[in-house]
Write a structure and sequence with these properties.
Number of strands: 9
Number of helices: 10
Distance between the termini: 52 Å
Bound molecules: pantoate
Radius of gyration: 19 Å
Shape: globular
CATH topology of the largest domain: Rossmann fold
Strand order of the largest sheet: 1-4-3-2-5-6
CATH architecture of the largest domain: 3-Layer(aba) Sandwich
Low-confidence stretches: none
Structural class: alpha/beta
Helix content: 40-55%
CATH class of the largest domain: Alpha Beta
Strand content: 15-25%
């Protein structure tokens, strides 16, 4: 695996891959890699002879300095994992390579950035994500880029910005990878102590309770969400949000029609976790 830290080096490596006729498949990350990331890379390998991964803890998308400072970082471990799944190029720039002095341009996806995580983390969060993803896509210029469904709102925002700005890249959203008990894999799971780790699975149980309610024929989102809320309450978890929204617009919905996103965010043992499921009720009125 080639490790590059500057954009001009990255471009030279990618130019050489293009000359060899290789397709470029790209997975942006903030490091602290887990099996969910590795699944994205394995998926990327199917679509590109040259798999590029970026490792950049993007300060612009953190609302709280303490969150940025506490974000798990271990580049040597990440490099070993990337090599184990056959990644070809790691782009690991310093902050001033991405945001040089005088940096003044941002990308903002209106409306989709406002609810859910937008409320909880403030408008700068998705502005930071949209700006860095636009920059990374311009730096790498891949044929396809791969993101996880766990960050459902982020995935939607990236699909929208790529469409709106005519970026010539295919965006693939890959399923959430879960631990054996159902907890969604996340870099933040490493910060959970053992009591919090046990409790954290309740987010998945609450989402599953909504799915089961729908499978039993429940059509009202409030009643289905209540089934999940009981489980959260029993564990003393007060979610920041536990909501049923239209999967395309993120607007709240009162009944299950078409595709509904059930999204949850909660602090467990001081660690902020998010998760979601998509519920399809085709043909429902
Ligand atoms: O999902 C992430 O890890 C980050 O938000 C991303 C897409 C790499 C942008 O910094």
């Amino acid at each position: 695996m080639i490790v590059v830290r500057r954009v001009d080096e990255l471009r030279a490596v990618i130019r050489a891959a293009r000359v060899r006729g290789e397709r470029i498949a790209f997975v942006p990350t903030m490091g602290a890699l887990h099996d969910g990331h590795l699944a994205l890379m394995q998926r990327a390998r199917k679509d590109g002879e040259c798999v590029v991964v970026s490792l950049f803890v993007n300060p612009a998308q953190f609302t709280e300095a303490v969150d940025l400072d506490g974000y798990p970082r271990d580049e040597a471990r990440d490099v070993r994992l990337l090599e184990s799944v056959g990644v070809h190029v790691l782009f690991a720039p310093a902050v001033d390579e991405v945001y040089p002095g005088g940096f003044a341009t941002t990308v903002e996806v209106a409306e989709l950035s406002v609810p859910l995580e937008g409320v909880a983390r403030g408008p700068q969060h998705f502005r930071g994500v949209a700006t860095v993803v636009t920059k990374l896509l311009n730096m790498v210029q891949p044929d396809a880029a791969f993101f996880g469904q766990k960050d459902a709102q982020q995935a939607l925002i990236i699909q929208r910005l790529v469409r709106d700005l005519d970026l010539p890249v295919r965006i693939e959203i890959c399923p959430t990878v879960r631990e054996a008990d159902g907890l969604a894999m996340s870099s933040r799971n490493a910060l959970l102590d053992s009591a919090a780790r046990q409790k954290a699975v309740t987010l998945w149980k609450a989402l599953s309770a909504v799915e089961h309610a729908v499978a039993r024929g429940e059509t009202h989102t409030a009643i289905a969400l209540a089934a999940g809320s009981i489980l959260l309450k029993a564990e003393g978890i007060e979610p920041e949000y536990f909501a049923a929204v239209d999967a395309a617009t993120l607007l709240p919905v009162t009944s299950f029609t078409g595709t509904t996103l059930i999204a949850i965010a909660a602090r467990v043992g001081g660690v902020r976790l998010i998760d979601n499921v998509l519920i399809h009720r085709e043909g429902a009125a």
